[in-house]
Design goal:
Oligomer: single chain
Shape: globular
Structural class: alpha+beta
Number of helices: 3
Strand content: 15-25%
Radius of gyration: 27 Å
Number of strands: 7
Distance between the termini: 54 Å
Largest sheet: 5 strands, antiparallel
Order of helices and strands: HHHEEEEEEE
Length: 249
């Protein structure tokens, strides 16, 4: 891809020199008999312009392709979640809710809310009972912290691992991020939202709030759901991910 852009810039550079020469002469900006310095100046200036143009187009193209791929990823995520909710075998909805279900509402996908965080591993994790909306108290450990900036604010969120889930081969690499933000109780579910993450390979963790989802108790009273710890309450709005479910009473 880069090679193709550079070849294009070179061709434009070679083919464009006579035209630039003619254009400058027609406006009286260049003497008919040029000195070596004038010729060198024309070549250098035109070369810089061609290279700058090629780089601009290349960067713009890469950004567009990257965003297109990202929006496609979020579109697929939404479709999968909607299929899960529409399927009687996996849906958390009540029987009445399932009969009326069409699709979940999402905030518009926004790459700004896909953040790169610095992950800090907890060197000595202790297990604790996570409060829920019922008497159930599942056991978690604080696996680490995610440090990042959003809307000019430095944010630290605690990341947890379920003691029960890590005993299951399929879920042993999964981490859990429950959080609240200023959209809760308005555009999003009042009890907060969740994110599923994977154990990072190093010190960088991608947190994509566009994949934030509601706890099952947002759809059905029969479920017991963790309550996001106060340390994970953010004093900013996160208009990303699944919105409030209006059918739940």
């Amino acid at each position: 891809m880069i090679f193709a852009y550079l070849i294009s810039a070179w061709l434009v550079f070679i083919l464009g020199i006579p035209f630039i020469n003619l254009l400058l002469r027609s406006f009286g900006l260049l003497r008919r008999k040029k000195t070596g310095r004038e010729t060198e100046g024309i070549v250098i200036a035109w070369g810089v312009l061609c290279l700058a143009g090629a780089l601009t187009i290349m960067i713009s193209s890469c950004t567009t392709n990257s965003n297109t791929e990202y929006f496609e990823e979020i579109r697929v995520y939404k479709e999968e979640l909607n299929r899960e909710f529409a399927d009687t075998a996996s849906s958390p909805l009540t029987e009445e809710g399932l009969a009326r279900f069409q699709e979940l509402e999402f905030f518009p996908a926004d790459p700004e809310y896909c953040v790169e965080a610095r992950f800090v591993l907890n060197p000595d994790p202790d297990s604790f009972e996570m409060p829920t909306n019922t008497a159930r108290r599942p056991i978690y450990v604080k696996y680490g912290e995610a440090h990042f900036e959003l809307h000019g604010q430095a944010i630290i969120l605690e990341i947890y691992q379920s003691e029960a889930a890590k005993q299951i081969e399929e879920f042993k690499e999964y981490l859990f991020l429950p959080f609240k933000d200023l959209t809760n109780g308005n555009a999003s579910y009042g009890g907060g939202r969740f994110l599923d993450l994977k154990i990072p390979d190093g010190e960088v963790m991608i947190i994509d709030f566009n994949k934030a989802y509601n706890p099952y108790c947002a759809y059905n009273h029969k479920y017991s759901c963790p309550i996001p710890p106060e340390v994970n309450h953010m004093e900013i709005e996160i208009p990303a991910g699944v919105m409030a479910y209006k059918d739940h009473e």
